[in-house]
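USER: Write out one fold?

ASSISTANT:
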Amino acid sequence: MATISNPGFSAGLSGLIPQLVAAERAPGDARFNRIESTATAQISAFGKLSSGLAGLQSTLAKFEGTDASLGRKVTLGTDAGFTATANTKAALGSYQISVESLATAHKLQSAAVAKDTQLGHGSLSITVGVGEAIEVEIAEGKGSLADIRDAINAQAGGKGVTATLVRGDDGDVLVLASTKTGSEGRMQITTTGDGLGVLATEGGTLKVADPGNQAQIEIDGILHTGSSNRLDEVIDGITIDLTKARPGETFSLSLTSDASPLKASMLSFISAYNTALGALRTQSAAGGENSSGAALSGDSAPRTITQSLRGTISANYSQLAELGLKTGVDGSLSLDGSKFDTVIAADPEAVQRLLGDEGALQKPMAAALKSYLGDDGMIKGRTDALNSRLKSLKTEREMFDRRISDVEARYTRQFTALDMMVSQMQSTSSFLTQQLSQISQLRQS
């Protein structure tokens, strides 16, 4: 009688379970990976579109206010004792300026004393200008100039006063300096306690190293006095920085039109526009015979945005062309610099009409970009939807993994039962074989 062969579950049937489970898992994993890969690539693509469009939006915003008008070129006399910058609000013209004095910081010096000499203890009350008093406590045994310096800096740091120690031939000198120039930075010091009176500004021994002078400047014979060496309110649109006192000497400051900042802004706008179009083309490119399409190939969003931007340019093309702008076959822009210079020289407000706050190109393009990039914009909406899809995909994967685990457990139970059945059949086969052998032996005997 033939015997039933059982290689054993672990030796034979167990090898089938991973194969069956892998076959069960493969279609689901492929689907999940495909969806995840596509969504991730599209999120990245929308991020690149957002970056390109945000660059265009930022560049367009530079024309807001008065920045779509001609700039100002500042010309100064040689070694004038001041520098100056001007914005588009500054009126064209010239001024005769004399720097009579610079604003300086108030500085006080103590009398020289031997190192580690204890002046006393108590408190110092330091007032800078009309500010609140700074209270500095000097403990007993901590009254050396070095200790007082440290106490002042610890308490007055960032409040308008600094203290340093200078070691001279006659001993140590405490130097107190205001961080504010002019009369607004002048210090007043009062003291209480024992021995600190020498550091009071009234009745003490402090020496004025710098009185904290006011800046004085004459502009066309008009005197202006201030506490700072930066003057940004004397003439509208002009900031003057004083560098050297030249009392009695007059130097010219002249303002003329300057088209170069406006031209640079126009070139930046063109570059940003071309970059945005390039991103839209790249992220929506169709596949070829030997290449796959881009992440947003066939998606309507890049096409809609591209048509909107090019439509805005087309609607204002005649004005753009007058300024020297040209469009390429791919929709990109370029600028004829010489033509731009000629037009701006004859019509300084040409860019303002096109790209200023109420400009014919500024308003519709800014509105369109906001609709794409805003918190409620198209790109954020699409990106949020894709992120939500990835989040739900994660949940689906977890459910799928549990189902596959159940499948694996079912196969294990089935093959275990099969193994047990085969073992039982083998045992029965062995018993029958034994009985038949005995019967055969009895017949032979």
Q: What stands out?
A: Residues 378-444 form the longest helix (67 residues).
